[in-house]
Predict the structure.
Amino acid sequence: MVHPLVERVVRGLSERGETLSCAESCTGGLLSARLAAMPGVSAVFIGSIVAYSDRIKETFLDVSANLLKSMGAVSLPVAMKMAQGVRKKMRTSWAISITGIAGPEGGSAQKPVGTVCFAVCGPGVEVTE
């Protein structure tokens, strides 16, 4: 079954003739799989990069090593750079990124397991959460 939010996003993009790409870390492609379950999504969903390692974030999404070192891979600035990078590389109207600490290890007092950062960027819009 397709999630109602996915349905709304895909329909909205389709109506406006816009496209979407994703950059995922902790979700390992789950968002992309949810999008791909929507009939007709190929008209708007161009693709995704699953960037679990920092090396892939640097190489394929143009996230700087300095930013990764100073802020950590799980941070709002890195999430935004991931979204900007995948949008640029795939030449899409919109991009979504997700980075986080899935656990069971890897958390800290500042960033416990379960910390997740999202970013969305598109024409004149850049939002992180």
Remarks:
- Residues 71 and 78 are 7 Å apart (CA to CA).
- The radius of gyration is 14 Å.
- Strands lie at 20-24, 45-50, 94-100, 116-122, 125-128.
- The longest helix spans residues 76-90.
